[in-house]
Amino acid sequence: MTRSSAPKLGKMQETRKPHIIGSQLRAARESLALSIEEVAARLGVKPFEVKQWESNAQEPSIEVLWQLAEIYGRGTDYFLKETRPFPQDVAFRLSKHEQLGQLSLESRKTLVTFQELCRAEAELETLLGSPRDVNVNRLQNGRDAESLADSERKRLGLGEEPIPNKAKDRDLRTLLTQQGVRIFELPVKEGEFAGFSLWHPQYGPCMLVNAKDIPGRRAFTMAHEYAHFILSATPSLCDLNDNQSEERFANEFAASFLIPASDVREEFRKRGLIGKLPTEAELIPLRTRYGVSLEALARSLERLRLVPSGFTDRNKDLWQVTPRFRPSRTPLWKRRLGKKYVDLALRNYYQGHISVGKLAEYLGIDIRKAVAEAEGAKRPSSSNGGR
Predict the structure, then answer these.
(1) pLDDT tens digits, 61-117
(2) How buried is 349 (Cβ within 10 angstroms: 0-12 exposed, 13-18 middle, 19+ buried)?
(3) 29, 35, 74, 227: which has the fewest C-beta neighbours closer than 10 Å?
(4) Residue 365: inside a domain, yes or no?
(5) What is the pLDDT, as a whole number, of residue 326?
(6) CA–CA separation, 348 vs 21, rounded Å?
């Protein structure tokens, strides 16, 4: 198993054949936009057999079930109990694709991995008897993006200060997770999408962020997708560059939410930048202050008329080649899962709900690393970090 793959939950060790649910097989296939013929060809069977399995007329052997789990990127237990499927009516706010089948198979598998992680996290919460509280407020009609962002910042007790705050051990991902949002960072094929958000009837608000993006862009994507949770329950696949009204609103919300106008104006004044074109070196401390990319910062400065229109487009290509953030010390696998998820898995292990083998499966690492992680997390001087 690779670190970015979904946890293979409930791998069967028994010889007794369990009951396999046909609708789960069909849902798994449709979530990858695979045809019955494509699946049959991969298995080396006739399409009729796949149809029989999906209609509950027959059941595949356990060996074939393992093959199907590998093809679909699912844990085998996904096929053994009814699971509320992820909605198929996704709003494709992308410039290149309009439906699931037009995405690369790699990206479709990433979406499945995301679904499995949401399912796994909910299962970990159930084992502990600690369901997640969701505190995301839905939009009242007639609100503009900036006033909505201001209202949300006040509700969260942020005032006018930036969200990243080391003294308060606060960053955007932690803040949104505290509101009940499930957030996972997974690598997405280049040019496909930046983020995906949906409000699942069982798992609540769930968000996927492209792990390949720089930290500032990932933060902007989180704020953008958070706007979709407030605006609508419609699942949204976004690249941030689409010009639909919903995307413009989400971008404006994200900019106002991450870069409060009064604070950036005050910072410009204190730094002596009023009435001048700031250099890249002068922008970098501001970018770090708000935890965004140089491009996102510059576009907000244009909106606030602190720099002239067109400033961003004239400079963004130069910024592309400039190192922006220090590499994270958090292991990649832990950053993708997030602190909340890792802590849930470790708590389940400490309380005896799961074995060390299951802990390794949930975390997507080998058993030796899982043992080391469990032992390290128990040491008082160690950190359980990994947002």
Answers:
(1) 999 999 999 999 998 889 998 887 777 778 888 877 778 888 999 999 999 999 999
(2) buried
(3) 35
(4) yes
(5) 61
(6) 28
For residue 104, give its domain range. Answer: 86-258
Edge to edge, what strands does the sheet with 91-93 contain? 91-93, 236-238, 195-200, 204-210, 182-186
Quick: pLDDT tens for 303-312. 999 999 999 9
Instruction: Looking at the structure, tell me whether residues 154 and 114 fall in a common domain.
Output: yes
Asked if residue 271 and residue 250 are part of one domain, the reply reads no
Q: Are 180 and 229 in contact (CB under 8 A)?
A: no
pLDDT for 331-370, tens place per residue? Answer: 899 999 999 999 999 999 999 999 999 999 999 999 999 9
Identify the helix (H) or strand (E) that includes residue 198.
Answer: strand 195-200
Q: Are residues 97 and 75 in the same domain?
A: no
Model confidence, pTM: 0.87
Classify 232 as helix, strand or coil: coil
Residue with tokens 């910042």: 153
- Quick one: 113 and 190 in the same domain? yes
pLDDT at 324 over 60: no
Q: Which of 258, 291, 308 is the endpoint of a domain?
A: 258
